[in-house]
């Protein structure tokens, strides 16, 4: 893998991070498990990402799926793990300050790419993304992790990603299928069930933001979150990229994770660092520096 950036390019990135990501936001992320960094990305970087999402829509991978019901007037498209196949995604991860922002927010010496996830809700999509945590669906343990949710279209407050502040501090909650609410990961009863947030929203510290292209929503993989459908003629194209920090370890599961990494358990034992070509090292060092792998 090539360097994340040259030494020359890092200086503008560091200046941009100092301007866009404050110490207070770092503290807010540790407290709440979710923040929004306004205008972290340039219009050129957003255009690169938009081009990649449209390329993904035109040629989905075998992992792609439609996550809305057949009678939904819209369409909710998802795809995973395409950074190696779609050049714009690989460039976007390497040629923007995202990994350096992840390093600061995770308070981690190292940053590894975990995976990418495209989520597109076409105009009129009613399908909500129900309340859930991400990490129970994954094959990892550890607390130093981060997801970045990056729309390339404006997103209204009604359609945005929402979070229950502080829920990343635990416990792990039962992961279920979004369409039929089945426990297909951890055995039924082995984890605490999700609270019914929608039944009493006022009882929960819910946070969320209206989003413009260039904004980046950052959240911990255990933060409870959900999203609405999209109203009217609006489209919501989102790229989500996940990063891992120092304490993350491989946790093979006896079930199919989402996404799955076929054959990984044969190459990476339980409890091992995520040192594998699927998860390239992007940043290393007490001060943000680049590394190759």
Walk me through this protein's architecture:
- By secondary structure, the chain is an alpha+beta fold.
- It contains 6 helices and 15 strands.
- It has a domain at about 10-175 and about 205-245: Sandwich (Jelly Rolls), CATH 2.60.120.620.
- The protein has helices spanning about 5-20, 25-30, 45-60, 85-95, 100-105, 265, and strands spanning about 35, 65, 75-80, 110-120, 130, 140, 145-150, 160-165, 205-210, 215-220, 225, 235-245, 250, 280-285, 290.
- Helix 3 (about 45-60) packs antiparallel against helix 4 (about 85-95).
- The radius of gyration is 18 Å and the shape is globular.
- The chain starts with 6 loop residues before the first helix and ends with a strand.
Summarize the model shown:
By secondary structure, this protein is of the alpha+beta class.
Offer a few descriptive terms.
293 residues, alpha+beta, Jelly Rolls, nine-stranded antiparallel beta sheet, four-stranded antiparallel beta sheet, 15 strands, globular, disordered N terminus
Question: Number of helical segments?
Answer: 6
CATH architecture of the domain at 12-173 and 206-246: Sandwich
Helix and strand pattern: HHEHEEHHEEEEEEEEEEHEE
- The counted number of beta strands is 15
Identify low-pLDDT runs. Answer: 1-9, 287-293
Strand content range:
15-25%
CATH topology (level 3) name of the domain at 12-173 and 206-246: Jelly Rolls
Structural class: alpha+beta
User: What average pLDDT do the residues reach?
Assistant: 92
* Major pleated sheet: 9 strands, antiparallel
The proportion of residues forming helix, as a percent range, comes to 10-25%
The gross shape turns out to be globular
Radius of gyration: 18 Å
In the CATH hierarchy, what is the superfamily of the domain at 12-173 and 206-246?
q2cbj1_9rhob like domain
Q: Report how far the terminal alpha carbons are from each other.
A: 5 Å
């Amino acid at each position: 893998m090539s360097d994340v950036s040259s030494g020359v390019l890092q200086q503008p990135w560091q200046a941009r991070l100092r301007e866009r990501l404050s110490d207070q936001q770092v503290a807010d992320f540790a407290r709440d498990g979710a923040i929004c960094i306004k205008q972290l990305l340039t219009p050129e970087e957003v255009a690169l990402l938009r081009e990649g999402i449209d390329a993904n829509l035109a040629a989905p991978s075998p992992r792609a799926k439609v996550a809305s019901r057949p009678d939904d007037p819209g369409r909710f498209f998802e795809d995973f793990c395409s950074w190696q196949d779609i050049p714009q995604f690989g460039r976007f991860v390497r040629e923007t300050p995202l990994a350096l922002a992840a390093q600061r927010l995770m308070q981690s010496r190292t940053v590894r790419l975990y995976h990418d996830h495209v989520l597109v809700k076409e105009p009129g999509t009613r399908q909500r993304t129900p309340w859930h945590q991400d990490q129970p669906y994954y094959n990892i343990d550890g607390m130093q992790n981060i997801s970045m949710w990056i729309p390339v279209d404006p997103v209204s407050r009604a359609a945005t990603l929402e979070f229950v502040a502080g829920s990343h501090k635990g416990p792990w909650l039962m992961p279920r299928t979004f369409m039929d609410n089945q426990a297909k990961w951890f055995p039924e009863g082995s984890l605490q069930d999700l609270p019914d947030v929608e039944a009493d929203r006022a009882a929960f510290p819910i946070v969320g933001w209206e989003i413009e292209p260039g904004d980046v929503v950052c959240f911990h993989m255990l933060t409870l979150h959900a999203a609405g459908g999209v109203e009217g003629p609006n489209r919501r194209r989102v790229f989500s990229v996940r990063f891992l920090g120092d304490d993350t370890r491989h946790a093979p599961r006896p079930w199919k994770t989402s996404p799955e990494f076929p054959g990984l358990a044969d190459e990476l034992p339980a409890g091992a660092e995520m040192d594998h070509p699927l998860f390239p090292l992007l940043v290393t060092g007490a001060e943000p520096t680049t590394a190759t792998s």
